[in-house]
Amino acid sequence: MDIGLSFMMMMLFALSGGSELLSLVPTEAYWQAKQVEPSAAVLIEDLRISDQTDPRPLIEQLGDKESATRDLAAQRLRLIGAAAAEQLEQARDSRDAEVAMRAQDLLDELRERPKTASIRRLMTIRTLGEMKSAEALPVLREMLVSEEMFVAEYARRAIAMIEDTPPAKDAPELAAQRQADLKLLPEDCGVVAQIYPAPPPTARVQNLLSLIAPADQEDPDHAPTMIQDMAEMLIEQAETIGNIRFDGATIGVADDIGDTSGFVVFILRGLYDAESVRLALERNDDAETTIVEHEGQPVHYIDETVAMIVVSDEQLIFSAAAQASMLPAEEMAASLAVPPDAPRISDEITELVASIDTSKPLWVAIRVSDAYRHAPVLQMFDAITIEGTHAENGLDLSAEGRGPDPQQVADAVESLKGYLEWTLREMREMAEHSPMFGSFIEFFESIEVEAEGEVARGTAKLKQSTLMPIIGEIN
Hints:
Number of strands: 12
Strand order of the largest sheet: 4-5-6-7-3-2-1-8-9-10-12-11
């Protein structure tokens, strides 16, 4: 799967209730994919092996006369992962043909999925926590000082689960990030938005994949199979680029958007292995990728109309445009080099943003440009704002649209109500053949909108289950 699409999927997952890639993979599905029957003793031993710093004795065992010994040595080298790469490189030139062949095979696996060992380590830690394995506490406590990405955090969570205590929350400081990222957006944005969803309880996250595949009375094996397939797709991504934590995104859409014009920008915040993502982009065989340096910042251009700037382990910028000349990547690289003192978006958009509670997990500001007026639902308005507040199973949305004429606003509201009725009729028919449309029906049924003079106000409930079928279709 394309790396850019992976990050966009991660945003949808986060908005639908999750915030971390691996937390969306049930541990049962992970071990089934690895064909491992996990036990506390086996998992604890795996963690001890993965911390081994000298892989040379295991490499020697790759040439053992016993097949079982050779296989066990290879498996343990997989647990060590990248830390064994240098010695494996040397072993490729071994005079022992078996050692050379197996070393090459392990290096090929490492190149294809370089984060396999680190992902297994994280899933092992999490599984021990879910098992409430008290015998794992000593090795887990050793990992509290680990500098490897996510390991100490996972160890804290596992210990909290075993000891049945609330986990410590190391929430990142987001307010300053949100303000800084607004200043990076290009000038000619017609839509500006931010999504910063708070992570839900772990137990709820682990059940998110089940929302994609509701139980099928006629084929009871369909949902479990679909969930397993989805989990294995996520595992493949994680083993390629590592685990990803999504804290939030700042989004900008061009004010002149159409089939041959416009752009969209996502400034993503969270935690991920930037170097692994850079390598994956360079090795991407699914698209033509070129690297151009702007203001000292490497920009990865994918098929000319997509660009990614891998800024750091905490920030990534993704942009796409209708034409290569419209990509704002160079402009944004310049802003990274010399951060602007204030947002460069228009005064109209700035005023709209000022009218919004930007501390909320979701907000959108839209200045309705001439290009946007081609959409019938927007043409009677000058500006629209949307805010989202956390609710039990998703977000409560409130929207406000302002227009120049009360009668035109009232007509627009009636037109919107008619469109909603038509959409619900169509979806109810489709739901008879595909249950996934049930979640969309709930969303559209929750929409209420009324006109009050020059202002139209609306509310809706966006549940986790509404977005999950979209992700299933992407897969």
